[in-house]
Amino acid sequence: MFVYRPIGLLPNKPYQQIRSLAFSPNSRYIACASDDWLVSIWARKGNDYSLRMRRFVDDGAVFVAFTEYDDLVVVSGNGDIRVFTPKNNFVLYQYGQNASVKSASYSHSSGRLALGMVHGAIKLMTIKKNAPSDPDYHVSTDGVLKGHKYAIKSAVFMSSGRELVTTSIDGSLRMWNTPTLKCKVVQQYAESGGDLLAINPNESLIAHASTFLHDGCMTHGRITLLDRSGQRVMQLAGRRHLLNDMQFTPDGELALAYLDGVVSVIRIDRFSNLVQYEFQLSTGMSGTRIAFS
């Protein structure tokens, strides 16, 4: 069962929405990318976190994720990729490319990075060290996934990095086999497109939140749960507000962060079709993001 206990507030510039938020694998660091084109990293000291570094990123960061060595991968909107080490605020690797990136996902186990482009393609890359003692990261381009017609709104790897789930504003959800670059499953929705994806810890459920019009406003009133084969398991009726983030807790409960600052946590039993709200709270801050360690 998920238990909420506030332990502190990490200061960030006011009125700047968080684009991406991540814990390092051992929870030693927290990183975020915000609308002011800054990437911030906090380091843990006891039960508290203190600001370790703050860096300006050209064209703004759209995605941050930690490698298995606690180094930070930062992807900017123009496709540039940087790897920072929080230990000494040093850029270990920088890769420049002229591409408009809308979303991204990173697999810790495989080192694979997926870049969802504005034109609908997904570029696959691998960012890894050959050995833990290696000071440098080595980057390779693994191929391009093609099938979506328009911009990629969300991309999430399965833990192995061999499977990727994506949604696009063309209204489709696709599941890919990344080694073969082949699409395994296509689900087409009548809504205007899926904004958010999340995969539960044992990878038996995929949550997909799609936008649609309600009383003249865009909203995320429907959240669809799919199994590994892409078949619908159940549909949840959430609050009629736009979602800003959606993540599964380590216990497999679904956490929903709405644009108005409300966070809901839902327990799901797919076998009995039981959906139970664990709790709902208001953070008092719009544009809330969620991350779990």
Q: Which features would summarize this protein structure in a list?
A:
24 strands, four-stranded antiparallel beta sheet, globular, 293 residues, mainly beta
Largest sheet: 4 strands, antiparallel
The proportion of residues forming helix, as a percent range, comes to under 10%
Average pLDDT works out at 82
The largest sheet has its strands arranged as 1-2-3-4
Order of helices and strands: EEEEEEEEEEEEEEEEEEEEEEEE
Strand content: over 45%
E-strand count: 24
Which term fits the overall shape? globular
Question: What structural category arises from helix and sheet content?
Answer: mainly beta
Distance between the termini: 15 Å
Q: What is the alpha-carbon Rg in Å?
A: 18 Å
The unreliable regions are: none
Question: How many distinct helices?
Answer: 0
Characterize the structure shown.
- The protein is mainly beta and 293 residues long.
- 0% of the residues lie in helices and 56% in strands.
Summary of the model, kept short:
By secondary structure, this protein is an all-beta fold. The chain contains no helices and 24 strands.
How is the secondary structure organized here?
Blueprint: E1 18-23, E2 29-34, E3 38-45, E4 48-56, E5 61-66, E6 72-76, E7 81-85, E8 90-95, E9 101-106, E10 112-117, E11 122-128, E12 138-145, E13 152-157, E14 163-168, E15 172-177, E16 182-188, E17 193-199, E18 206-214, E19 217-226, E20 232-237, E21 243-248, E22 254-258, E23 262-269, E24 274-282
Antiparallel strand pairs: 1-2, 2-3, 3-4, 5-6, 6-7, 7-8, 9-10, 10-11, 11-12, 13-14, 14-15, 15-16, 17-18, 18-19, 19-20, 21-22, 22-23, 23-24
